[in-house]
Specification:
7 strands, 7-stranded mixed sheet, about 200 residues, alpha+beta
């Protein structure tokens, strides 16, 4: 006596398991994209240092009696400390402590060698942020220039953000369409299965 081939098992509700899994995965992706779209907006991460004068690793000379720092976005409550090669803080004070470009004035540097610059601030997202770098002072090197708005890049274009938003909307709509197609397919298969069962009973 030969065993009859066993029919393939289906989900308890009559839906093919593969299609159900695809539908669930599509719904998860759609939910994720919608959540990303709802949370989309300007990045609120810590504001990065864009440029310094004297800058990181730069060799400067002449009369160096200031430090300018330019940040990607506006910052507040900036404090700067410059330490000479002997580990002594260079006397100075903040002249501009808020904004996208801040300034620290100090007594002219006289000790050649590596100077360490440390700063702390309140970043654009409201969190305390700190950083540091070094620059070298050599009297005969080129004197640094103050920073100004012309040293800052233009604000980011809205075109890129618009393109990303449109692409996200298109992806969400496409996945929603896929969900609708899968639902229609599942219902048709359920109807065909129900009709097949009814005919076999009769």
């Amino acid at each position: 006596m030969t065993d009859r081939p066993r029919p393939r098992r289906r989900a308890s509700d009559g839906r093919p398991r593969g299609a159900v899994e695809i539908l669930v995965a599509a719904l998860v992706v759609v939910s994720t994209l919608v959540a990303l779209a709802a949370g989309a907006g300007p990045a609120a991460g810590h504001t990065d240092l864009l440029q310094g004068s004297p800058g990181p690793g730069q060799q400067v000379g002449g009369t160096v009696d200031f430090v300018d720092l330019a940040f990607v976005g506006p910052v507040t409550d900036v404090r700067i400390v410059v330490t000479d090669p002997d580990g002594r803080p260079v006397p100075g004070q903040m002249v501009v402590a808020d904004g996208q470009i801040v300034r620290f004035t100090m007594e002219p540097l006289t000790v050649p060698g590596r100077h360490v610059l440390e700063y702390d601030m309140i970043s654009e997202d409201g969190d305390p942020t700190e950083g540091s770098y070094f620059f070298s002072y050599t009297p005969e090197a080129t004197q640094p220039f103050p920073l100004s708005r012309v040293n800052l890049p233009d604000p980011p274009s809205e075109t890129g953000e618009t393109v990303r938003t449109v692409a996200l909307v298109v992806a969400v709509v496409a996945l929603l369409g896929l969900c609708v197609v899968l639902l229609v397919t599942l219902r048709r298969r359920q109807a065909a299965l129900a009709a097949q069962r009814a005919s076999s009973r009769s």
